[in-house]
TrEMBL record:
Stated name of the protein: ABC transporter permease
Subcellular compartments: Cell membrane
CDD domains from the UniProt entry: TM_PBP2 (cd06261)
Domain (ABC transmembrane type-1): residue spans on this chain: 92-292
Source organism per UniProt: Aquibium oceanicum
PROSITE patterns: ABC_TM1
Keywords, alphabetical: Cell membrane, Membrane, Transmembrane, Transmembrane helix, Transport
GO terms under biological process: transmembrane transport
């Protein structure tokens, strides 16, 4: 472990990270938001998902620093009397969970199909790439809405809320796999003609072993960059779906659901219900995007 840490400190990636103040700030902000979401049960002033602790008499309180605010609610309350700060912390947990799970799901599908398409070639390559080309003609949000609508129709209104998390992961993941597949396929087309792959074939290793044990580690750099950028896109896509009313239920809202709920009261003067979740979503997505941009430049040998 100490040797690994020493190699990490001496690497070009760490050097690039320490020389970029914007990247350091982005990493600190992203880490702070992720930790605050993970520790929400410990640091949140209230539990917004516990009906026994809610009171309708506490609804529509403005932020505590305003004249009509309540010291118990730093960022005010929503229409159900839920503390906005607490709902943001808990809502980030749902948004981040959907984002990470959908990115991992898309990465597994895309990397696997990209490896197969690039290594096997022929008809298999053509079929996978034509499917990818067709998928690219549809916006990601439209694909997600289509999958969500099919799942909603098959499950029925009663059972849908029990599987909504899985449906969101499936719909967002299936919207983003193409980028991984096309990138990995291009890298595999280069790698499969190199000497180490030819040597592996010569000693009789199976194609699956060659693809996942030898070729995959050499094409992971671009995959990590895409995954970092797609994490922000996945969080925004989930927020968009929830804003449109096809995401998580209002009883366990994500950031998108909070923005949608607050939007109904924005023009009646209760601006804090939607503004603070919106700012949190924007800061989270921006910090992750900046980290993705830095990682792309740090792993690009042409920029070293």
């Amino acid at each position: 472990m100490p040797g690994f840490l020493e190699r990490a400190r001496d690497s070009d990636v760490w050097y690039s990270f320490t020389r970029s103040p914007l990247t350091i700030v982005s990493a600190i902000v992203a880490l702070a938001l992720v930790l605050s979401a993970l520790l929400a049960p410990l640091i949140a002033p209230h539990n917004p998902f516990d009906p026994a602790t809610l009171s309708i008499m506490d609804s529509f309180y403005p932020p505590s620093w305003t004249g009509e605010g309540d010291p118990r609610f730093l960022l005010g309350t929503d229409d159900q009397g839920r503390d906005i700060l607490s709902t943001i912390l808990y809502g980030m947990r749902i948004s981040l969970a959907v984002g990470f799970a959908s990115v991992i799901f898309a990465m597994v599908i895309g990397v696997t199909l990209g490896l197969v398409a690039g290594y096997v070639g022929g008809v298999t390559d053509s079929i996978i790439m034509r499917i990818a080309d067709v998928q690219l003609t549809f916006p990601a949000i439209l694909t997600a809405l289509l999958i969500d609508g099919v799942a909603r129709g098959l499950a029925g209104p009663g059972a849908y809320e029990d599987i909504v998390f899985g449906v969101l992961v499936l719909s967002i993941g299936l919207s983003f796999w193409v980028q991984y597949a096309r990138t990995v396929r291009g890298s595999v087309l280069v790698e499969k003609n190199k000497e180490y792959v030819l040597a592996a074939r010569l000693i009789g290793l199976r194609p699956w072993t060659i693809m996942f044990k030898h070729v995959l580690p050499n094409v992971l750099g671009p995959v990590l960059v895409i995954a970092t950028i797609n994490l922000a896109l996945a969080i925004i896509t989930e927020a968009t779906l929830s804003f449109l009313g096809v995401g998580v239920p209002p009883t366990q809202p994500s950031l998108g659901t909070l923005i949608r709920i607050g939007n109904d009261f924005l023009f009646s003067g209760e601006w804090w219900i939607t503004i603070f979740p919106g700012i949190t979503l924007a800061v989270l997505a921006l910090s992750v995007n900046l980290l993705g941009d830095w990682l792309r430049d740090a792993l690009n040998p042409k920029l070293r």
